[in-house]
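[audit] Reproducing an earlier prediction to check determinism. Same input, same settings, fresh worker. If the tokens differ from the archived copy the diff job will pick it up downstream; this log only records the rerun itself.
[audit] input (1021 residues):
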Amino acid sequence: MTGLNLSEWALKHRSLVVYVMMVAVIAGGLAYFRLGRNEDPSFIIKTMVVQAAWPGATAEETMKQVTERLERQLQETPHLDFLRSFTRAGLTTIFVNLKGSASAKQVSDTWYEVRKSVGDMRHTLPAGVVGPGFNDDFGDTFGIVYGFTSDGFTQRELRDHVEAIRSRLLQVPDVSKIELLGVNDEVIFVEFSKQELATLGVDRAALLAALQAQNIVRPAGTIETGTESISVRVSGGFQSEQDIANVNFFAGGRTIRLSDIAQVRRGYVDPPGPMFRINGQPAIGLAIAMRDGGDILALGRNIKKAMTEVTANLPIGIEPSLVADQAVVVDGAISEFMTSLLQAIAIILVVSFISLGVRPGLIIALAIPLTLAIVFPIMEIARIDMQRISLGALIIALALLVDDAMTTTDATLNRLAEGDSKFDAATFAYRSHAFAMLAGTLVTIAGFIPVGFAASSAGEYTFSLFAVVAIALLVSWFVAVIFTPLLGVVILVPPKQKSTAAPGRVFRLYRSFLERAMRANWLTIAISLALFVASVLALPLIPQQFFPSSDRPELLVDLSLPQNASIYASETAAKRLDAVLAGDPDVHHWSANVGRGAIRFYLPLNVELPNNFFTQAVVVAKDVAARERLHAKLERILAEEFPNAVSAVSPLGLGPPVGWPLQYRVSGPDVEQVREIALKVGQTVASDPRAKSVNFDWMEPDRKVRIRVDQDEARLLGLSSQAISSVLNTVLTGATVTQVRDDIYLVDVVARAIDEQRVSLSNLRTLQVPLPGGRTAPLSQFATFENRQEYPLIWRRDRVPTLTVRADIRGGTLPGTVVDALSPAIEKLKKTLPPSYDVAVGGTVEESQKSQASVIAVVPMMLFVMFTVLMIQLQSFPRLLMVVSVAPLGMIGVVAALLLSGRPMGFVTILGVLALLGMISKNAVILISQIEAERTQGKGPWEAAVDASSSRFRPIMLTAVSTVLGMIPIAPTVFWGPMAVAIMGGLLVATVLTLVFLPTLYVTWFGRDGKAQASVESHPA
């Protein structure tokens, strides 16, 4: 090769190169400590929640008049994937889900468009609609959660202390936001007796208007004098519940104190909002989110320091508890991965020292930290944190980056043995191998292109795998051609004689086997192809998986009561669950969220929105083994002791959140028809013994009382439907009259009937409704009562009612296996459905298919880049076809390794298999280049193939063995294990085939004496 020889340049500028090496090491060390630390790579949750309320409307009215109008507008959203909404009486919640291909900027711009477009059509919503409101922070992760319990303090006193702590923690660096959990606002109740008011002739409406008028804040003017400006303030504002109780008003010609005819007391919102419990005790939670790009370890240390300061001043009786600490998890994960990284380095160094010797091994030992020292600053510039994916990528890259250094060192040793000077030997590798190594490096990187450019959430999650491997491999090439030759000149010495001991015997054995294989060329090719076909046919035997479960010790316990259940029923269920967990030897601690799901304390968590019937507990076991024991116990106990609840126990998942493992969506225009089809789908799913806990996201109707007003009779009495609804709401639920401004809080003043008159349905008939003129009339005089059934909530997808059949799977089974088994029965059912009705697979299988499709869509680009790089290097179609023919043979080892180990073929494993194509192609292109180099010396195809394969045997096998052994530390891990096993098996088999099958194919094509050469383009020297 002509042109600039970088190795020669480096040797002529030694001082400068040494200086650059020193700077690189220092910069790498500094960057390592500055890199952000996190548990998972950040990826955008491409979901916005749009909510609107229409108080008093039925579920059907809300769906048709609010949900439908909003969804019609939202369907025009750019990059929209699908809309999903649930509607309940008076409330609509719509999830706007964007396509996985939407970039971060597109997501941000789209949310702005959603706000603007919905704002423009807000005037078309019915009068009385509150909102819509928007939440595009749905993906915020609150990695650190504290809980506070109290003994001897009121909830208000506890909240005061927690609010003060929140204010202090907001000043901690890297804190972006803090949310309170389990807080219920204070309310001042003014509770009347209907009979007493009627007896005294008190006009309730006039009384409430008087309370509002006294408490209102209005300017009273300003007096301007010659020297100052004096503001005038009018007293009367309520400061406490006692001020309200002391209000006097006139009725029936006399003055009456409010406390004489009503109970005025301070309490909390009724019914309460979501509650938070820690280890069985009511608590208030403090959830802390980190800013983007922050260091969770530094944040954890700073939060811990600040908490030590503030809790020292807490009164005795208020106890803080650390509920979730992502910093500890990340610290443990990084420590574990750093241990794996050091183990991988040690393994590779041992291989290098044993196979190459002490001095050559020392060069490899120095090349590794040099490469990593340059990689870390580039990661910092590219804003790639130290997290699950990037750390695993470093280990995978480590096994690959020594390849070029080994090739350079091996070539230098060979030239020194031939008698070349150190300078000539050190620069020979660049002349003979540099561009083949660069082409191989680019081909290897191209194998990771589907990882980097897959347009899906899973692709975004694993992007840093591509980025880190690409950075490391490119850096390793520069290290191999600039730094390694300089180290070789300093460290290597010419061997006294060529070694002919053990390595020579290995070479002779290999050469003998190779020559036999080449003589029986058609048999060798046939056996290789037969093994490849067998591996492809065996692929369905490998279980399919999306992402595995996490190895964290947490368990999520979901309890869903019937959907008309009150939050009090959920609280009772939560207390029963507390009793089950208390004292269990496998439980370290737990927290329960009553009326909502857990806050997103872990990025891949599938967050559940507030619902009164839902409770989710996060149980932290003492270790992973304890988690598995606890999992089995809880499933059994929940099935036996909570028969009326839909329960699920699951470890935390990895990758994008998907919810229940098995899901089938039944959709169609008529709700009743959808319900009937869903029941059939549920029966089909339940027929598979591997499926359990079959349930529906909505199904059962609940009771409603409909009051039919005789409008003519009501008008004769001077009443309207609005006045009647207002009276009923005040009596039953309570109406907010005014607010008390209490320190930093606003406390609603709610007027309602006393308890015994409020909770009884029978009292409705005798309810005295005030009439104009001070008289009253019973409600039954002008209204009749009907008991009806309505669905408490209705889910829709893309404006079509959709009922999801959900199920869990028994341990040891993968969702894809069950879906495949159920597929014939589901397809048979779908053929019987009327037009406009459909059953679609959802959940893990759907997400896996979408993610795999996003990867497959990028494969053509990967192949194009590979072919282009190979063509530039080889400049021959036959040689290109030879390299390409070797790459797929890695599937033989992949399938064998996965079947023998019992590992599944998951999303990350598929990425590894695609990357394996690049690794195999790299070895193939270097071997082909070596054969061509041998032929330029006048050798025939047979002799050139044998000699080139023999000379490349050691570096190719060393690289393969180093890569395989270097992945041993991550092979047992949950996340990386299947990918590591696939690459180990595939690379080992493909390396052997590269050294045997490729030379055989070459000789078969070109002939033993080169006769076929004339029929193809010549390859330039």
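[audit] rerun output stored. Observation attached for the diff report: The longest strand covers residues 281-290.
[audit] end
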